[in-house]
Specification:
The chain has 21 helices and four strands. By secondary structure, it is mainly alpha-helical. It has two domains: 1-250, Growth Hormone, Chain: A (Up-down Bundle); 272-480, Growth Hormone, Chain: A (Up-down Bundle). Strands 1-2 form a two-stranded antiparallel sheet. Strands 3-4 form a two-stranded antiparallel sheet. The two termini are 19 Å apart.
Length: 480
């Protein structure tokens, strides 16, 4: 991630009155298709769990690994994407990720064994991890500073849109086939088509990337000044382009190549990891400890476990996705007014309450035929609480965490800080996801959601004590 740190201020000036907003919006629209693919590839697994268990004969541990296998690839992809983007270019690596999305869609749907499926999903994880890092970085390098925050927030909206698109596609296919494990077109099981239809948006992403330019910051870093000036002229006008090329060149001349060792500071008593790095790591990990991806990945299984039919469970997923999109839009509108820290505190408190309500509702259930059944009242409490929880998460931690990670680190360690925090976030995602089927058969839904509620409560005190507000502060003013 060598050159992500100072990209925003270097390539975009709030005073650019000649900015080509049409081209800028086109670039943002194309780049955020990567966010849509991120969400779609993450959420498509939701409606396929029954099919995977039937096709591969896997137990709870095996199912958990099949579902979570993508996340190991995400961790690797997020960590490696920055370095590859500095070597090959931002757009070039996004093109590779689009190809990988096509490969994983076909491979996961065609898999005839757990091993083949896990490999295909790992490949998809590389693409998701790269998209999670590169899309917002690329957007920041080609947009004016005065609208960069709002445009960067579109990434989260597109991620949730991708999740919702996957939920809706899963529902339509399962409904048409009569169930996720039933034969669909040409005799292939419906769950396989849930993966295969992903080829359509992935192909669109690949073709659309051919329409947008390479990042001018990357071009300057590679000494391709004439090409960079051409791109900047299209974006901001000729006079601004010349100035920006000079500013970018000057900023690169003073930069040193980022090193992971930058995350360690020298003190009188020795060396230690910088406190701001610990704050970023814990922030990233807590985003997963509250269990949001259990809802995304296992939503259909969860609602069937408490008595809903498969069709109704998939409808609930679609409803959750729509509400999450609306919450992200609200977050985008208020984040620069309310601030980051207040939204995190509101989200932590609200999630602790709603997760606790879900755990309490599940504790009243009775086991009938191996499934948990709730009373009408408890079922309604669980349903309302789950959707309120999804809204609160996307209003706060879902959007704000990535914004803060992009702002809170000093320039000299921003790339390395994001790489390590992003890696930690995906590893925590993996741990939470793979553990849920085991928790389901050991401590049950009550114990699982009780743990997520406790994590949300602890995150409230963590944010209050250790997270500093970044609203309105210049990136160059960040300390740590």
């Amino acid at each position: 991630m060598a050159h992500f740190a100072a990209s925003g201020p270097a390539t975009a000036d709030a005073g650019d009155e000649q900015a080509n907003h049409g081209l800028i919006l086109l670039i943002v629209a194309v780049a955020t298709i990567g966010g849509f693919m991120f969400g779609y590839d993450s959420g498509v697994i939701n409606g396929t769990v029954d099919g995977l268990q039937k096709a591969f004969g896997s137990d709870s541990v095996g199912t958990g690994f099949n579902v979570a296998s993508i996340l190991l690839g995400c961790a690797v992809g997020a960590f490696a994407a920055g370095r590859l983007a500095d070597r090959w270019g931002r757009r070039a690596v996004m093109l590779v990720s689009a190809l990988l999305f096509i490969v994983t869609a076909w491979g996961a749907g065609a898999a005839n064994s757990s091993g083949t499926f896990v490999f295909a999903r790992f490949i998809g994880g590389l693409a998701v991890g790269a998209a999670s890092v590169l899309a917002p970085a690329y957007i920041s390098e080609v947009t004016p500073a005065n609208i960069r925050g709002r445009l960067a927030s579109i990434q989260q909206i597109m991620i949730i849109s991708g999740l919702t698109g996957a939920f809706l596609g899963n529902y339509v296919i399962a409904h048409a086939a009569g169930g996720s494990t039933e034969p669909f077109w040409w005799g292939f099981a419906a769950w396989r088509w849930m993966f295969w239809v992903q080829v359509i948006p992935a192909g669109l992403f690949l073709l659309a990337l051919l329409l947008i330019p390479e990042s001018p910051r990357y071009l300057v870093a590679k000494g391709r000044l004439a090409e960079a000036e051409q791109v900047l002229t299209r974006l901001f006008g000729e006079r601004a382009a010349r100035r920006k090329v000079a500013e970018i060149s000057a900023s690169l001349a003073g930069d040193h190549q980022p090193r992971l060792s930058d995350l360690v500071e020298k003190t009188a008593s020795g060396s230690r990891i910088r406190p701001i790095v610990w704050a970023g790591l814990v922030l990233a990990i807590f985003q997963q400890l509250v269990g949001i991806n259990v809802v995304f990945y296992y939503g259909a299984v969860l609602w069937q476990a408490v008595g809903f039919t498969e069709g109704d469970a998939l409808k609930i997923n679609v409803l959750s996705g729509v509400l999450s999109i609306l919450a992200c839009i609200v977050a985008m509108m208020v984040i620069d007014k309310v601030g980051r820290k207040p939204l995190l505190l509101i989200g932590s408190a609200g999630m602790a309450i709603t997760l606790g309500a879900m755990a309490a509702a599940f504790s009243t259930g009775t086991l009938e035929g191996g499934s948990l059944h709730l009373s009408d009242t408890a079922g309604l409490i669980a349903l309302v609480s789950a959707n309120a929880y999804a809204v609160l998460f996307n209003l706060s931690w879902g959007t704000v965490m990535w914004v803060m990670l992009g702002e809170m680190f000093p320039n000299q360690i921003r790339g390395s800080g994001l790489a390590v925090s992003g890696f930690a976030q995906w590893i925590a995602n993996f741990a939470i996801t793979i553990s849920f089927p085991v928790l389901l058969v050991s401590v049950g839904l009550t114990g699982a959601y009780g743990f997520y509620a406790a994590s949300a409560l602890v995150s409230f005190f963590f944010v209050r004590a250790l997270v500093k507000e970044t609203k309105g502060r210049e990136l160059e003013d960040m300390q740590g």
